Amino acid sequence: MFASILLCIHWQHREYLQRQVRVESWSDVLPVIQEVLPEADVVVDSSTAEAAIETAAEVRDANGQAIARVLRTSPAANHILGFSGPTDVLLVMNPDSKVIAVRILSSRDTRDHVQKVLDDEHFLQSLVGRSRQELLNLQDVDAVSGATLTSYAILESIRFRVSKLSTDGAGPSRLTSLKFPEPPRLEDVSLLYSDAAKVEPDDDNTVVWKVLGPDNAEIGKLLRASPAADNNVGYQGPTDVLIAVDEQMAVTGIAVGVSYDNEPYVGYVREDEYFRKLFNGRDLSSLAAIDANTVEGVSGATMTSQSVARSLRLAAQASVDEEKAREAAEQKQRSASAELSNGAASGRAVISLRDVSTIVITLLGVVLGLTHLRGRKWLRIGYQVVVICWLGLMNGDMVSQALLLGWAQSGIPWQNAFGLTLLTVAALLVPISTGRNVYCAQICPHGAVQQLVRRRLPWQAKLSPRILAGLRYLPLLLIVWVVAIGLLHLPFSPVDIEPFDAWVWSIAGVATIVVAVAGLVASLFIPMAYCRFGCPTGAVLDYIGGGGKNWNRRDTFVLILVVTSFLASVVR
Questions:
Q1: Residue 421 structural domain
Q2: Is 94 a member of any domain?
Q3: 98-135: per-residue pLDDT in tens?
Q4: I need a labelling partner for 137 at 20 to 30 A (CA). Which of 43, 467, 569, 571 fits?
Q5: Using CA atoms, how far apart are residues 325 and 336, in angstroms rounded to an integer?
Q6: Which of 130, 163, 196 is the last residue in one of the domains?
Q7: What is the CA radius of gyration of the chain?
Q8: Same domain as 190, residue 158
């Protein structure tokens, strides 16, 4: 029954994604268009779903006369995220492809950030009157204060969507980065070409820059990671990376340019000559296929150096994709799914140090939970400290409703999260095969903290049996809420109802921090308070591991949830 719910969520999500690209979806947008053009009567999109990204739909009046063109950023630009998700933006243009109006149709970004953008009188209005080429270069548009990431993502989504429009044989359109609007700094280029006096864009490839010497003659070429890697964040922001290439487009060196990342960490990468030479000799296809997890990072700056490696991959992939698109333009077979930020998938799992540590800690937890060793206090407490410090604070690898829902919808990223995948598999299979919820009892960092603090205070709260019985329904209600979010695609995130994101404090939201703190404080007065009365993930694991031989109320509850999930999938 648990697997059936996951399958319903996956099935419904696939249908949802397919509905997003259907031509008839324009009928839902017509009322928004009519607010701008009252004479609009119908939206006609004659393109196929595969070619829709290269075209704009046509708006016609009651007489069948074309009066405008429209396009929307979703789903083509759904990979461009703001604070927490993509935003679907509608562009209404006149027949000459100049913008008449810009409207936000929907957003999976944070509600407050989107509202800040909507409340700003100048942001969206500043796009009105711009041509296609002007939309590709929006560095003069100021982000909305307090919603910088959301407003930047909206601009980048518009530029990405417009850049994919067919230009009927015109040359490539170069996107100017909003985060790195200036040309590559000469001081960075000089590290790769000592005689460099100037850099300028290459006419044949939008990713490539020409390096000119003192006599204005070309002395070399370099690839720039921006804007292809502008959404690739290291420790706290993106980094611009320059890649020197020879005539065969093989790497001869890299240089780290301007960065939004933590400067001490960026400095470590800039100074590490060994790391910067790791990529020399690779051609672009090889560079586009690297996995950052396999690259030996810079000591003390692992996240930043791996971010640089990902930027190299994204820059190379952008150049390779552009060349492929150029070759295929004559046959009109450019792929609608090509995205600037897509890297080449390796097709195999790559195990990093983080994966290894998560796997080892998981195996130790399973052994400890299934043997008499759990009775040895010193061993149990020592393991709990390791779980809290390493698995929780260092790796941030924990099973949660957000993880289960995301994987149910989009698939399991076992190639990039091998350790976390095995941890989740163990959390699910061990209770099924043994009847013991080892994950909650031994491996969960949040549970380990509660075990260490329980009964540490002399005063403990005593709850009546009626209150205790009522509290036990809370995890079940949260499970229903998560399933509803998955099936109905409600604009809420399951991370807000659990404390696990708070362990990755640099990205934690207010809601998850409040849940984490409240749960731990409650555990001081009520042993294992959050685990017993607030954790939907624990309730799921308890259910699949404690079925018993006889049908019970929990089975009836889950069966109702299965039937409801199936009906919701069919109806939607």
A1: 353-571
A2: yes
A3: 899 999 998 867 676 788 889 888 899 999 998 887 88
A4: 43
A5: 11
A6: 163
A7: 27
A8: no
